[in-house]
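Sorry to interrupt, but I need a hand with the structure work. Go ahead and set the record down below:
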Amino acid sequence: MPEEIIERISNLKEFYKSGTKIDIFLVLRSVDKEELDGPYSSLISYLDNDEVLWIETPMNKGFPLILAPQDLVLVNVKKGKLIYQFQSLILERRKEPNTNLFLFALKAAKEVKKIERRNFFRLPVILDITLKIKKNIQDKDFIIFKGKTKDLSGGGVRVAVKSSDYKEIMKLIKEDYIIFIEFEIDKRKKINQKIKFVNSYTDEESKIGFISFYFDNIYRGIQDSIIRFLFAKQREMKQKGIEFDE
C-alpha cells in the first residue's frame, strides 16, 4: 500500500493564517440529517491560543452548511499545489453580528496528511461502474450495484445510482460494509479499488442518488493512470468547446 505522508506543523500561526482557503466535507452528523453534496468552501477566520481554529460558514452553490457541536468534518487546507488534510470535531458555533451566518470552532490539528493537489482535480465524466459490497474481508460473495460516474478525480469518485439502490447502499454504508468500485478508463485498463464514503444526496425530481467516495489506500500507479486519463479527457472536452468548472 502507498505510504501516507504525515507532516507535523512547525508554525501553527503561519499554517492557519487568517483568510486561508479551505474545503469542508461533512463526515458524520451528531444528529442525522441529509445535506447538499460537498465540498463546502470556507476561510480560516483565526487561530485561538494555538488550539482552537475558527472558520467562516462553509458554502456550496450559495447554500450554507450549518454545523453543530460534535459534527465530524474533513478539512482540506489549500497551500499552492498541495492540500493538507485532517479530521476534527466541531466544538461550538457563534453567530456573526448583523448576519445570518456563523463562525465555527474546531480543534486545530498539529499533524496533517499532505496530498498533491492534482489528486483533487475533478472532471465531469460518465463511465459505467459496478459497486461491490460485502460485510467483511473474509466474505467471498458481493452485493452488486450498477451505476454511472458523475465526476472523477485521482482522489475519489462521485457516482449516480437509481433511488432504490441508493437507499440500500446507504443502509449498507451505515452498517460499515466494505465497498469496492470497478470501472474502465480505457479498453485495456480496468480499475478495481476499495473506496470509503464521504457524503451523499438525492435528486427527488430525477429519482437519482449521488454518493461521493474517496479511494482508500490507492496505489500510486493506479492513481497516476486515472489522472492521465482525466487530463486526456479534459483536452478532448476543451477541443470540442465544452465548458466546465475546474
In short: Helices lie at 12-15, 163-174, 220-239. The mean pLDDT is 87. Residues 121-235 form a domain with the Thrombin, subunit H fold (CATH 2.40.10.220). The chain has two domains: 6-117, 121-235.
